[in-house]
Amino acid sequence: MVRSIARIDYEATPVIKFNVSVIDTGVPQLTSTAQITVEVVNTNDNDPEFEQPEYTLQVRENSPVGTLVGMVRARDADAGLYGQLTYTIVGDHSGNFVIDPDTGAITVHNASALDREMEQEASLTAIATDRAPEGMRRSTTVPVQIRVLDENDNGPTFTQQIYHATVAENAALHPPAAILQVMATDPDEGAAGDVKYAILSDNVGGIFRLDANSGILYPGASLIGKSGQYRIDIEARDGLGSGPHNDAATIVIEIQSINQHRPVFIMPALYNATVEIPEVRKHIEMPFARPARRKHISFVLRHCIRTRIRLIFFFAGAHMVLRTVPHYCVASCATVRDCV
Description:
Blueprint: E1 15-23, E2 31-39, E3 49-50, E4 55-60, E5 68-71, E6 74-75, E7 85-90, E8 97-99, E9 105-108, E10 121-130, E11 139-149, E12 157-158, E13 162-168, E14 180-181, E15 184-185, E16 195-201, E17 208-210, E18 216-219, E19 228-238, E20 246-256, E21 264-265, E22 284-290, E23 296-306, E24 309-316, E25 319-326, E26 329-339
Parallel strand pairs: 4-11, 13-20
Antiparallel strand pairs: 1-2, 3-6, 5-9, 7-10, 8-9, 10-11, 12-15, 14-18, 16-19, 17-18, 19-20, 21-22, 22-25, 23-26, 24-25
């Protein structure tokens, strides 16, 4: 009887040959030799092995059906059907991809599911199974991560279509005072999602400036004397700067006039001086004060001396005029104010 003293591996030694000699006990001893050939029977004793412990693949969003994502490969040391492999994939995202059962090539199956803004990665499990008879098959799994790469398929969107702002005409220029900030968002990544802002039209005289990066609106020139309502059209565009990926909005700015100048006394010329009025029976008129920048002014008597002359104040053109009427009083001190 011939017995093996070590494990025999069909894949390493499918055939074993050796000689067997026999010797009798006679005198003289006689011998005989025979050559033995042993054919090793193959069994499915090896698991498939993938070339990598895990696979990381990538595909661009919106790729059409049939786009090659990547390949997984495994080998099986067994011979024959025991060493021939079939590939399958499972997992939550397996319906979006398909794998070639013979080559392990993974391709896109559901293009609409490749939206990076909705899901940036897809997780699969690839399985390699040998083709041994059912019940004898061996298989191995490997994780597959598929990263969905971004495409510039979204445009910026303003948070509002119309922005409203109010600014005083004396808003600072150096450094500039912020009037308001507009904002647009773009779900794309990188330069495709980097929003830039610009004024499109109606910025007469360049009196406004829109920061391209922050979206903050500043005065572009002095606003003094430019009170009123202004409407400017603005644009948000992604950093790639081309194509239809942009959005438009309008800013309505109200520049408010500011009371910056005091009214001026014409008479008396000096502060806290006395106005001398001739003592006459008939009334006289004299210019007394003028407002700043054509505003209305009010007049307040701070002290009055009883006399026979009455004082009447009224407007004549751009000036305030003092009229005297006999038999009343005369002002020795007065204050004049804007009526804003």
